Structures are given as C-alpha cells and as structure tokens.
C-alpha cells in the first residue's frame, strides 16, 4: 500500500470486496486510488502487525508502528479458498 500499487493492494482483498469496489468506482484499483489519495499510506511502509484476534471466520490484525502498542488501524480478513483476504464488514457489524 505504501508504494501505491493499487493492483497489488486489490489482490489482497476478498473477491466480494473487489466486486463491490468495482461496482462503486469502475475498478478496485480506481476505488483504492480515489479513496486513499489523500491518506497517509506511507505509514504502512514501517508498520507491523500487532495483536491478532479471531472470531469465527474473521480475523482482526492490529497495525502498529514500531515501538508502539496502540494500533494505527485494524485490518479484517476472511478465509477464502486457501488464503486469508482483507474484507470490510458492514457498518452494523463490529468485530
């Protein structure tokens, strides 16, 4: 993500998320580029995975900066085929 290679970012997303992003913006890459253009994505260059939690078929991965314990963000992933891919949960669901 720090390199802004949106096609590489999109392959980390679950197929349902890629389809929804394409529906919204034409392609997943266009959605990522548009929604993250003013965001500090360079923070992912040094970020590390902190705490991990699993609830059923979803795992939560806290993203932290080196030497910190409070997460910058939390990524959610679902098992799809043989891979864990990033997903967005509906607003009415929380982890």
What layout of secondary structure does this protein have?
Blueprint: H1 6-10, H2 15-25, H3 28-36, E1 48-55, E2 58-64, E3 73-80, E4 83-87
Helix pairs in contact: 2-3
Name the descriptors.
single chain, 95 residues, alpha+beta, 4-stranded antiparallel beta sheet, 3 helices, globular
Structural features, described:
By secondary structure, the protein is α+β, with helices and mostly antiparallel strands. It has one domain (about 5-85). About 25% of the residues lie in helices and about 30% in strands. The chain contains three helices and four strands, in the order αααββββ. Strands 1-2-3-4 form a four-stranded antiparallel sheet. A hairpin with a 2-residue loop joins strand 3 (about 75-80) and strand 4. The longest helix has 11 residues, at about 15-25. The chain is globular.
What general outline do the C-alpha atoms trace? globular
Strand content: 25-35%
Mean pLDDT reading? 89
- How far apart are the first and last residues' alpha carbons, in Å? 23 Å
What is the SS-derived class? alpha+beta
Compute the number of structural domains.
Answer: 1
Unreliable segments of 5+ consecutive residues: none
Assembly of the depicted chains: single chain
